[in-house]
Amino acid sequence: MLAVKMAGRCKPGYDPRNGSQDLRKKAWYLAAMLLKLAFCLTLCARLEKLTEIKVTFVCIPLWALLTGAMAELGYNIFPDRRD
User: Is residue 3 part of a domain?
Assistant: First the structure.
């Protein structure tokens, strides 16, 4: 029974709070993917010496991604109270 329950959670689009993904969650996943891509591209440009970008500016997409991930984690850990 446990294996069936775990397989159901791994199914794409599964959200234990309401059973479906809303537009906000899909937008977050898209933004996270774009932030990761921006960080990788700026880091590669910096390491290959294609541009003279400060490391601070290279890390801005990474910091935004980590901040958003912490907010998403907090949202998942502390569900809405329905008293």
Answer: no
Q: Is there a domain that residue 34 lies in? A: yes
Flag whether 60 is in a domain. Answer: yes
Contacts of 80 (CB under 8 A, 6+ apart): 17
Vertex 17 angle, CA 14 and 19, to 5°: 40
Closest CA to 42 of 26, 61, 69: 61
- What is the per-residue pLDDT across 2-60, written as a single tens digit (0 to 9) for each? 455 555 555 555 555 555 567 888 888 899 999 999 999 999 999 999 999 999 999 99
- Predicted pLDDT of residue 61: 96
Domains: count for the chain: 1
